[in-house]
Specification:
Length: 651
């Protein structure tokens, strides 16, 4: 009897421990889900409220309205009441911004424990298992230094706000409340980094652990021993070092900025925490999580299958029909997702197995979808365009419009290559009845997906919505279609989709925050101007400068993720482009197209990784099949570069 009681007691303790482990593991996730949903609702409320007020004011100001209701209603009094009601929505943008900052930094802690950050791992992957483990300890230790210092500095900033209180303009709350995310968010990152260190060190020898923990001290020793170093040398030297080590790019930027501030005294150290908040306290940047959420919701809600059926109706009967359909569907889905890897995952998971089943070469199948996925960041909406627009202070709406024609040209070029290869290998389309009736039926089934670009671009250029508001409306629209119309988006899917959207966007947002620190130091040291002057002293020929920029960006795209490259390089390259009279919108299209090609260039082309995982083939095998497509994509890039009227055609 006693034994049974003890056994039951042990089971209860095990169950309680299990629940505690689950709670610790998933602590951030409910906040991310609720925060993202609240952001979507609040910005949609703001959009519809403002539009309604504007429409009512316009209607009540017409002579017809006065003629019909002037004898019954005090028109001027009514309009004054409506104008006074416009203040009911003034709080919405500020609240949504603060929620956005909070969930962005809370989500980063998950990427730390899951090691989901964007990083250059070429050298890391070539090391033996032992040295990989040691390097992970070094990476986590360096990350720990950064996040702990930001948590400490953030706490100091909150204390300052309590001593000298200020209130926010709209919500009229103390600034210390939104700024609490700095000690809380970076404090949570500190705990997750410690957790990662503990997990990594288990099973390692004492000597290897000592090497992994002593190495960061050696790395930081120069700036701890002297504060008279060259700022440029520290900034770029440490950034390259951390990149080669495999430190996530966002943390590499933050660490190199921190080291430069300590070793050269470029900025006050305490100022860094304020930059971490103020740099992302921006309404335009909020478009990023909304566009990501819209794509994820619509993919989970079954819209990709309906787009595929429409693409099959258009090109499925031609040689390489299924491959051409994949490209066509990627073009459609690009107008929803704004992300290359997301497009490959959503479309490739359906079309790659289908192509292999129909006799297409598996490497060819994966290559087609990987390359077509690159169109996802060229055709609007596009997260890289949002990031470039913020970094370059260029209209995001203009960038969206400028990407349409180049994206379509890229799609057609890929289809031409696919058609020729398929015809040569005898891969023919699916033979079945296709008619205007079947096309109209497929278009009708896909109508909800096809409405997204109409809502986004129509709303922006109709003057109804800003890009961020359009993104929030698209996210709510995707949520509604998936839950209520197609009913393929279940609560379980919605939970995981919201986590995915928050997690992906948080990596981008942290990157932008840390890059702002990096960029501020470059500006103070006048590094962009020095680079531009140096190149212009060699040649001022526009043709040669543009080809040099293209070669440089293609090279950068080989080993660096597109968004990271845009954030880091825009302040450096844009002054050079402006010096030779390149339109900043055209330069943005050119930059994004260069880096889109990077999605499919080994060794770190993310589209290749996604496609190879779906097709279950090696990256090296895909690399051998990608070159024909790469040459065609580069040819389109050169066309867009030297004929700017193509990208500026619709502006």
């Amino acid at each position: 009897m006693e034994t049974a009681k003890m056994h039951r007691g042990e089971l209860v303790k095990e169950k309680q421990a299990s629940y505690l482990n689950i709670a610790i593991k998933n602590f951030e996730k409910p906040f991310l889900f609720l925060g993202l949903m609240l952001m979507i609702v609040i910005i949609n409320y703001q959009t519809f409220f403002r539009y309604s007020i504007s429409a009512i004011l316009n209607m009540t100001g017409t002579p017809e309205f006065e003629q019909l209701f002037g004898s019954w209603v005090d028109i001027e009094g009514l309009r004054a009441s409506i104008k006074s009601a416009s203040g009911w929505g003034i709080w919405s943008e500020e609240l949504a911004r603060y929620i956005f900052i909070w969930i962005s930094y809370l989500a980063v802690s998950i990427s730390i424990i899951t090691r989901g950050g964007i990083r250059v791992d070429v050298i890391h992957n070539k090391l033996s298992k032992r040295y990989q483990d040691i390097l992970w300890l070094v990476i986590d230790s360096c990350t720990l230094v950064l996040v702990f210092l930001f948590a400490f500095m953030g706490l100091g900033y909150v204390e300052m706000q309590l001593v000298m209180p200020q209130t926010t303009p709209a919500l009229q709350i103390g600034y210390y409340i939104p700024y609490l995310i700095l000690p809380i968010g970076f404090g949570l990152m500190t705990l997750r980094t410690l957790q990662s260190l503990w997990r990594q060190s288990r099973g390692m020898s004492i000597s290897d652990i000592c090497i992994g923990l002593v190495a960061p001290a050696i790395i930081f020793a120069p700036v701890l021993l002297s504060d008279e170093w060259s700022a440029s040398l520290l900034l770029f030297g440490y950034f390259i070092l951390f990149l080669l080590m495999g430190v996530p790019i966002a943390f590499s930027l933050g660490l190199s900025g921190l080291v430069t501030v300590l070793g050269a005294g470029t900025l006050p150290v305490d100022y860094l925490a304020q930059i971490a908040f103020s740099s992302i306290d921006s309404f335009p940047i909020m478009a990023i999580p909304f566009f990501i959420a819209a794509g994820v919701f619509m993919g989970a809600g079954g819209l990709s299958k309906r787009l595929l059926a429409l693409g099959d109706e258009l090109v499925g009967a031609l040689p390489g029909g299924m491959a051409l359909t994949s490209i066509m569907t990627c073009i459609f889905f690009a107008s929803i997702s704004g992300s290359g890897p997301a497009t490959v995952a959503a479309i490739g998971s359906i079309t790659i197995p289908a192509m292999i089943a129909r006799g297409y070469d598996k490497y060819f199948s994966a290559t087609v979808v990987a390359c077509a996925g690159a169109i996802g960041v060229i055709i609007p909406p596009s997260n890289p365009f949002v990031v470039y627009g913020v970094a370059a202070q260029v209209s995001i709406g203009d960038l969206f419009i400028a990407g349409i024609v180049p994206g379509l040209i890229m799609g057609v070029a890929l289809m031409v290559v696919t058609y020729v290869i398929s015809k040569k290998n005898g891969w023919y389309g699916d033979v079945r009845e296709r008619s205007l009736k079947t096309f109209m039926s497929a278009a009708w089934q896909a109508k909800w997906a096809l409405m997204v670009p109409v809502i986004v671009l129509g709303g922006i250029y109709g003057g109804i919505m800003t890009p961020t508001e359009a993104a929030a409306v698209a996210a709510l629209y995707g949520l509604f279609v998936g839950l209520c119309i197609h009913k393929e988006l279940t609560f379980r899917n919605l939970w995981s989709s919201a986590q995915d959207a928050a997690g992906i966007s948080s990596i981008i947002i942290l990157l932008m925050a840390m890059a702002t620190i990096f960029g501020n130091i470059m500006t103070i040291e006048q590094i962009p101007e020095s680079i531009a002057e140096m190149i212009l002293s060699v040649t001022s020929n526009k043709f040669f400068i543009l080809i040099m920029i293209n070669i440089f960006l293609l090279w950068i795209g080989v080993f660096m993720e597109a968004l990271a490259a845009i954030v880091i390089l825009t302040p450096i390259l844009l002054p050079l482009a402006l010096a030779v009279d390149v339109n900043p919108v055209h330069f943005g299209v050119m930059m994004v197209m260069n880096l889109a090609i990077g999605f499919v260039t080994p060794p770190v082309g993310v589209n290749l990784f996604v496609a190879s995982g779906i097709a279950k083939v090696s990256i090296s095998g895909l690399a051998k099949n990608i070159w024909v497509y790469l040459l065609m994509m580069i040819a389109v890039l050169l066309l867009i570069t030297y004929v700017p009227s193509i990208s500026l055609l619709l502006l």
